[in-house]
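We treat protein structure as text, and this decision shapes the records that our systems exchange. We quote a single record here, exactly as it is kept in our systems:
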Amino acid sequence: MDDGVLNAALAAWAVKGLPARLDAASTAKLLGFAEHDIQILVRVGKLTVLGDPAPNAPKWFSAVELIRLAADRDWLNRASREVSKYWRHKRERRSKPRLLSAPEPVQ
């Protein structure tokens, strides 16, 4: 991304009064993903959490980094593919018939 686009994005960020850190819900809204997809993007390494939070603690993200990612078409494409791949595999796991144990022979 060139400096002009980044500067315009940062100017828009400043005008909107966004905080420097965003929670998962605000991150999802800014990037155009569902809130539950943010966890997937963190797990596959497409998003980086600020600090070192406990697994059950709220996650915070850098607004400046998110604006840069939102303006990066290639990153959005790769992130969208990762989310799609996750849900496709989840649906495939659900639709596969489970092997039931064979009934015991009657004697």
About this structure: Strands lie at 21-23, 60-62. The chain has one domain: 3-77. Residues 73-95 form the longest helix (23 residues).
